[in-house]
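Changelog-adjacent note: as of this version, every example in the card shows the full chain rather than a window. The one below runs 396 residues end to end.
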Amino acid sequence: MRNIGRLLPMSDAPEEVIEGGAVRVHDGAIAWVGLDRDLPPGADAHELDAEGRVVGPGFVDPHTHLVWAGSRREEFVTRLAGESYDGGGIATTVAATRAASDDTLFAFAAERGRRMIANGTTTIEIKTGYGLTPEHELRCLDVIARLGSELPWNVEATYLGAHVIPDGRDRSEYVDEVVATVSQAAVRGARWVDVFCDEGIFTLEETRRILRAAREAGLGTRLHAEEIAHTGAADLAAQFGCASADHLEHVSAEGARAMAASGVVGVLLPTVTLSLRTFAFGQYPVLRDAGVTLALSTDCNPGTSWCESMPYVVQLACLVYGMPVHEALWAATRGGAAALQRSDVGRIAVGARADLLVLDTEHEADLVAHLGAPATAATIVGGRVWTPPSGSTVAS
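Full-length structure tokens:
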């Protein structure tokens, strides 16, 4: 790819820009990156002209709940009328998801995935959590595996049996069931285990049990933490060396420092705060000042963040947190890769995957300033320009 106006490598210096850049790709990986004028000749190369646009790595979305059926529109309308969200709406999605066939769940999730790719996402984490029985959680893992094999992107699967306590279930028995299912989740393709550790959801001690089981099964760990209230979940994530703690609207300075010391990435989800209308955006300076590595994510889900657009998340991060543009883009790429403990994505460097995003602008600041405009000119996954399949509702 040549004639890149501004190349954003997402190196250790988030603000680094190569003006007048070029990238060479070979066998799905980046083989060379630098100034266009220094590009060495290559035989039989197929050239793409960036036409002076901005080019960066594909977005890495490290927190989603992509596999679901049904609608939560009534809950959303009720919330707009002033009623608070208590997590009960998840039961609506669980019932619809259990009732849907595997093919139906795949079709719904694949269409969401195609919209994500069209918006520049090339690596994604997908959680279970809307089955809440071993049978339904494991089949959701099968759907996630199919999404990874049939769509051209990188998929990380997470077992989130500990999303909520299902209606009518004994609390202790359900936690036992989640713990017992962890090893089966590992066999069915999960790389991670997540727990919604928060007030009224799963306690610190229950979370410890599940994290220990994950560790014994050889799975990585991550947490929904401090979204509803300050519980000490961020400190627990630090104690267990979790890859990430996500949400963090009520994180303390002490919890943030513990995360930084243990290398736990803080995943911020501004669309959730906006959708819930809590407007609790104060965690960003707390985490930043503590030195926590930050990532951004859509948290794509049916009840609190129906969003498939990482560009929109970047816009919100700048406008509501006050993140500088270069920092928000780094968090949406390199930061997301750190949350998934991936060194091969989220950056443009020799040896990294050739997952590239061409922004439809000559300067990255326009991505944030131009609200509501289409953001991406092209998404390239593994060295191939992505186009929606015939019959898809996703605009090319």
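Structural remarks: The mean pLDDT is 95.
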